[in-house]
Write a sequence for this structure.
């Protein structure tokens, strides 16, 4: 299983994805491969092709909930650019290139401050991150015992 | 007789970052004026002031998620100068070079296969839904897999030398903070021959396209200009990491040669225009009208005396033969030039991987501190200048950046106008395919608009056609 946390830590709460994956990498999640990146790019299609399950962790804008978690399918090939892939496009590229598409989920963690060039999460984002971590650890734990 | 119209392509697609093209038609539907606008504002030159000098090579990578290594290395070279280090240790210089060749390789591969290939394979006027990498992959799946693996290889080289794929910390003032362990070297060597073979195939693709479409390439967005790049100090060879500045005219006459890059401001001036945040540099002695120049892969092919790796050098000779050794002024020939550089990078990576200096432990030099530093590098998109001054507390007090896309600003504007005049003038209806011709011309420069300025978020992708009253006549949605 693969977890990819992505975002720009130099843009405030946009760093939620990396903060999440780095916090998980610090734990003993032996059945998970954990990757942290600035953005989703074409070669992530190669990475996900080698896993049966993938979770994309990203910052979310405009949600009233602390976090969201949803399953996604391959799609959105029309938004394939070079530095702005969405998870659905990564899956679609994976399916097109390698003939496989793993089960995939997006974990969106709500942030509130994105505009300034600064490092560090807002208090609200940090609180949401904690809730998302608890949810994920519980979900992943149940997954491994299922 | 119709009313004057204004056409906007905003944002331009399949380039890095976001820009806007406006094409002004007169009442006869002839193109009056065409401009590439950079509508985002970069605050980095101010933002960096007050930061400590050792932070700078890491911070400036945030200018861009696409070519952070280029900014990292240009800033590090400037900080070397401030640290009083004129010559790095062999391990430090070779690790930095390895990082740089990995960066140029992956960037060029991405541009050619993902951004340019749909236009080249399906034609500039093909339906929009056809012009994307998924359609390329459907037709040539092996090409798609190679593109992913070649880019992955370059990214892994960056990770091994800089510590991270993006925003690494490898280069420090006066050197580097790591060497390359044997096991990483062996990992890269295990697939280097495959990378070289694929790079050679890519050159053939770009070469064949250029020669098979000779008439199109010769006229499409093409015009004479001056060219500038770094060349190797002793013999004028292509050198992407270090050297002196050389500028040639469109016919190959030398404007200046072997100019030490810390003296760039003695020969270059940056002009400002009201309709763009991006500056317009030109060669001082020639003035703004004729002194503008182009940089990038084709400019480097034009300025370099030769290439010091054999396969790329043979390809360079073949490209030069098309114009009898004179500078090539065809904008679309950039694609061929870009793939020659991929071969060069892979050859250089192989050479470096076989060099035991990469496992050395002498990583950082020190010297007599200076108050000013200038670092210049040949980034994937062309010449990149970083210029800093620091105070007695090591805090930055001045920063000037001239990025590749800024050097190419005038050239891109001329390409836009050339194509607009040839392909849009006199038509009652402007089709999406016609507009894509304009984008093809811009795309050939592989401009990094988020780097030339600084992007905050993502703009919706929209092409809109307005009449003289400002009414929306037509629009289309596009992907980033």
């Amino acid at each position: 299983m693969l977890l990819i946390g992505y975002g720009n830590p130099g843009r405030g709460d946009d760093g939620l994805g990396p903060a999440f994956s780095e916090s998980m990498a610090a734990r003993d999640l032996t059945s998970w491969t954990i990757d942290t990146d600035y953005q989703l790019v074409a070669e992530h299609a190669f990475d996900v092709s080698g896993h049966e399950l993938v979770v994309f962790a990203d910052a979310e804008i405009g949600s009233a909930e602390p976090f969201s978690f949803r399953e996604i399918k391959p799609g959105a090939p029309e938004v394939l650019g070079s530095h702005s892939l969405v998870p659905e496009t990564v899956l679609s590229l994976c399916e097109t290139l390698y003939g496989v598409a793993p089960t995939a989920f997006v974990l969106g963690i709500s942030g509130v401050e994105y505009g300034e060039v600064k490092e560090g999460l807002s208090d609200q984002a940090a609180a949401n991150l904690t809730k998302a971590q608890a949810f994920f650890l519980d979900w992943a734990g149940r997954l491994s015992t299922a | 007789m119709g009313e004057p119209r204004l056409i906007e392509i905003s944002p331009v697609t399949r380039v890095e970052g976001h820009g806007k093209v406006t094409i002004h038609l007169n009442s006869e539907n002839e193109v009056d004026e065409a401009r590439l606008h950079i509508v985002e504002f970069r605050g980095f030159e101010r933002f960096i002031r007050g930061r400590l000098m050792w932070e700078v090579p890491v911070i400036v990578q945030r200018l861009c998620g696409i070519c952070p290594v280029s900014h990292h290395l240009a800033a590090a070279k400037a900080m070397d100068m401030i640290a009083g280090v004129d010559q790095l240790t062999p391990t430090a210089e070779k690790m930095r070079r390895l990082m740089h060749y990995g960066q140029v390789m992956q960037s060029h591969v991405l541009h050619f296969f993902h951004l340019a290939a749909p236009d080249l394979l399906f034609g500039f006027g093909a339906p929009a839904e056809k012009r994307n990498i998924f359609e390329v992959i459907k037709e040539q799946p092996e090409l798609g897999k190679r593109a992913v693996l070649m880019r992955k290889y370059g990214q892994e080289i960056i990770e091994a030398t800089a510590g991270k794929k993006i925003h690494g910390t490898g280069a420090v003032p006066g050197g580097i903070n790591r060497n390359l362990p044997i096991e990483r070297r062996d990992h890269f060597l295990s697939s280097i021959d495959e990378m070289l073979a694929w790079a050679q195939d890519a050159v053939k693709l770009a070469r064949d396209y250029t020669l098979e479409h000779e008439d199109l390439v010769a006229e499409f967005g093409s015009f004479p200009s001056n060219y500038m790049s770094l060349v190797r100090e002793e013999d004028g060879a292509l050198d992407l990491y270090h050297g002196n500045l050389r500028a040639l005219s469109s016919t190959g006459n030398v404007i200046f040669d072997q100019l030490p890059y810390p003296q760039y401001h003695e020969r270059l001036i940056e002009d400002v225009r009201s309709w763009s945040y991006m500056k317009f540099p030109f060669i001082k002695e020639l003035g703004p009208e004729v002194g503008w120049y182009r940089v990038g892969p084709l400019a480097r092919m034009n300025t370099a005396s030769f290439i010091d790796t054999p396969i790329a050098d043979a390809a360079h000779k073949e490209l030069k033969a098309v114009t009898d050794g004179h500078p090539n002024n065809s904008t679309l020939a950039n694609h061929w030039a870009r793939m020659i550089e991929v071969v060069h990078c892979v050859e250089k990576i192989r050479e470096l991987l076989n060099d035991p200096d990469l496992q050395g432990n002498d990583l950082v030099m020190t010297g007599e501190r200076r108050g000013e530093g200038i670092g210049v590098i040949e980034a994937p998109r062309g010449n990149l200048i970083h210029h800093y001054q620091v105070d007695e507390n090591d805090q930055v007090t001045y920063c000037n950046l001239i990025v590749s896309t800024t050097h190419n600003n005038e050239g891109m504007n001329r390409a836009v106008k050339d194509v607009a005049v040839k392909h849009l003038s006199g038509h009652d209806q402007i089709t999406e395919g016609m507009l894509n011709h304009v984008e093809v011309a811009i795309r050939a420069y592989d401009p990094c608009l988020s780097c030339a300025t600084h992007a905050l978020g993502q703009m919706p992708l929209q092409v809109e056609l307005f009449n003289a009253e400002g009414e929306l006549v037509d629009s289309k949605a596009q992907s980033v």
Q: What stands out?
A: The beta strands of chain A are 2-6, 33-37, 53-61, 67-72, 103-111. Chain A touches chain B through 26 residues (CB under 8 Å). Residues 12 and 114 of chain A are 5 Å apart (CA to CA).
